[in-house]
Amino acid sequence: MYRKAELAPSPSSEFELPVGGRLSVDNRWVKMAQLIPWSEFESEYAQNFPTEKGAPAKSFRMALGALIIKEKLGISSA
Question: How does residue 78 score in pLDDT terms, banded at 50, 70 and 90?
């Protein structure tokens, strides 16, 4: 099951850190997030999941973001 986010995610530069402050606009992950057209890909991603059965899937942004981080840092999932 996939639940499309009601509200578009706020830009990464507006993300508030738990200890106070904000992410820098020069942060490599913030820059990369601005390059990806998240909303354009989300509807295609959502089509891969049934609408009424099963546990809710992770959002497209979280799924792709995790894969990008994994590949960029050379982290293995095994």
Answer: low
Please identify which residue in the block is written with the tokens 């099963």.
54
Report which residue type is found at 30. Answer: V
Domain ranges of the chain: 12-73
Burial of 60 (0-12, 13-18, 19+ CB in 10 A): buried
| Apex 76 CA angle, 73 and 77, nearest 5 | 125
The rounded distance, in Å, linking the Cα atoms of 66 and 53 is 24
Average pLDDT over residues 6-25: 68
**Contact call for residues 1 and 54 (beta carbons, < 8 A):** yes
- Tell whether pTM > 0.70: no
Residue 7 pLDDT > 50? no
